[in-house]
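Summary for the steering committee. The consortium agreed at its last meeting that each partner would contribute one worked example illustrating the joint modelling workflow. Our contribution is presented below. We chose a case with several input lines so that the handling of multiple components could be demonstrated. No manual editing was applied between input and output; the record is shown as generated.
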Amino acid sequence: MKGWVICGILLGNVILQSSLFPFIQIYGVQPDSLAVLVVSFALLAGNPTSAVVGFFGGLLQDILYGQGVGIYALQYMLAGYIVGLVYGKVFADKMLVCMFFVVLTVFFRELLVFIQLFFTGLDVSLYKALLTVILPEIAYTLLITPLTYFLMRRLYRYRFMNRRWHFGS
Amino acid sequence: MALFRFFRNRPLVIIVIVSILLIIAAVFTSRNDGNMGIVEGIVGDIISPIQKIIYGATSYVYNSILDIKERRELLANYQQLKERVAYLEKELIRMNELEKQNQRLRKLLDFATEREEFVVTGARITGKDPGNWFDVFTIDKGKNDGIAVNMAVVTEQGLVGRIIEVGPDWAKVQAIIDGRSSISGIIERTRDNGVVKGNNLFGFEDGTCSMIYLPLDSEIVEGDKVITSGLGGILPKGIYIGEVKEVTRAKRDLYKTAIIEPAVDFRRLEEVLIVKARTDD
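What follows is the complete predicted structure of the assembly.
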């Protein structure tokens, strides 16, 4: 049940991202809704759920728009895993906590993209990337964070969502 | 020891292994040499149906949103155009109105310049009796413009009536078709005198006049023209009234009666001229 719900959320996210978001993008910047979802799962369920969500969510994006399969999956899986490590150690009911980790996640992810671009030999200035893409994306993602996190918290009131998964079992 | 502890942490090991695998996958799949590798081909085979379904769903939602947006724009455009059409229609009506008024006024002006010495002023009709015919109506000029009782009211078509009441800035005009109106007229061809009375009384509103007291030996026929005689000094002489439509004679009457069709179209009166009988008063 939990697996299907997560599948549905990820599919819905991908559909929203490629259908609705082109209409709400500002100067080519779209909110990173998958990052919000991964952070939400990390704070509400911790590992391995958040890492798995990150992995599959990223994989879906890889398949649909990525140039190589694995790049997004790696980014979101790592983000899910790292944020998931704080599960149980922070106050997950606070919206600000979620927003803080969203900022970290988007920043970390974009940094990975930047590093990847750097290694593929593209000459991008970090300053410019920060100004034109990373910071606007963080701001825009923060805008959609409260609603998403609110809905996710509602979802986690259901008992079936709280069944634990275990690594390697 | 540290390595040992690392391997005890199974989640971290899995993450690291998956990460390495993902990096390898990324490196392999992002090589753009145009040829699909075997792995890539298999992955593609698995992926493409999923991709197709998601793409279908996505483009459906995308197009729906686009439709809504376009419909909104269309609606806005439609509203704008509708307003524009309404405006232009109104404008067109106004233009037509002006054009017609222009023609009417030009005719009146021609008439006025021909009879300059008689014309007191032009006036606009401001009110009338309910009903299609102008029996009694008010005009927007009065004493202040030199109008006095019994002055003739005309258009370029002919006689309309006479002034019966005057206020400072308004006057009442009794039309010749009003049942209470009687003026002296003359048949232009035969010079027979008679009295032109209005026929509009108590619902018998056919918009004609009757010319009574015509001599029995009068040779008037249909189509003869009737003008004012100037007798009594009320109306100026020679103003066209209308045309004889029918000549009748009641059995015991000692005179003939002619039904006269007035030249003025009383249904469509808007501007009139006020004319006085003599230039010297």
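Helices of chain A lie at 2-19, 21-24, 33-44, 49-65, 71-84, 95-119, 126-155. Residues 126-155 of chain A form the longest helix (30 residues).
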